[in-house]
Amino acid sequence: MASPVQKLRAMLEDKDKIVVCPGVFDGLTARIALNNGFECLYMTGAGTTMSRLGMPDLGVATLNDMRDHAGMIANLDRRVPLIADADTGYGGALMVGRTTEQYIQAGVAGFHLEDQVVNKRCGHLKNKEIVDEDVYMSRIRAAVNARTKVGQDIVIIARTDALQMLGYEAAISRLKNAIKIGADVAFLEGIISKEQAKEACEELAPTPVLLNMVDGGVTPHFTVAEAKETGFQIIIYPAFALGPVYRAVTAAAKELKETGDNANAVADISGMGPRELFMVCGLKEAMEFDIAAGGSAYTNGV
């Protein structure tokens, strides 16, 4: 069976294909995406920070937070590649190299590194701070060198947040230089128009370009078809699960607080008791594995 990295690279080699990655932030949202047949997942850094730490995406998550979360998601189904946020690499060149090695060991198929300062913020917030280009190139070079050192593959995605602060030409130049060093995919964060998106894809070709589809952010809305037509080869949806979960749980919390009951929330998942919810997370496969190994705990079901 091809490895997750090999599968991701094969997808990127198909110029007629766009890789659609729903953003997941925990085991349940990852299972839901997997059960709906997505061929690649994206672990959102903002979602990881909020779900693990209960804090905003302001550079507070550590390598350990992100690696452990990515490893759990990546290994739910090894047939499906995971692309994960790696922020700034969490330090200088040595730390970026360690991050790369740790992500490889965790089973991550691809990850993106950015050029914000270590105390970063979400790419769709204002007043981001950008490191000098030589610092950014050292991050990319460290990731490439670490990949070579361990002799195992991972797709390196060069992300730049320089568009807002330095302008289009400087941002594209940074991505081109990152590609020369060995980055596999280009990620121009904070694209502000569809015309700019098309120009970037054309300038960076034949390198695959990633679109960060954050509805409500600074980037205009693209459908998958529109993104593919523009020239993107990967589209990620960081808020894919965050928005729906926030709205649904907020409504349930409000109902329970105000009425002393959660009947409407329960009605929305009618027929989904504990057993059915566990099925979403692999109960059937776990039972079958135990029986095949000679276990008897689940012979009569649950």
From TrEMBL:
<protein>
    <submittedName>
        <fullName>Uncharacterized protein</fullName>
    </submittedName>
</protein>
<dbReference type="InterPro" id="IPR018523">
    <property type="entry name" value="Isocitrate_lyase_ph_CS"/>
</dbReference>
<dbReference type="InterPro" id="IPR039556">
    <property type="entry name" value="ICL/PEPM"/>
</dbReference>
<comment type="similarity">
    <text>Belongs to the isocitrate lyase/PEP mutase superfamily.</text>
</comment>
<dbReference type="InterPro" id="IPR015813">
    <property type="entry name" value="Pyrv/PenolPyrv_kinase-like_dom"/>
</dbReference>
<dbReference type="Pfam" id="PF13714">
    <property type="entry name" value="PEP_mutase"/>
</dbReference>
<dbReference type="GO" id="GO:0046421">
    <property type="term" value="F:methylisocitrate lyase activity"/>
</dbReference>
<dbReference type="InterPro" id="IPR040442">
    <property type="entry name" value="Pyrv_kinase-like_dom_sf"/>
</dbReference>
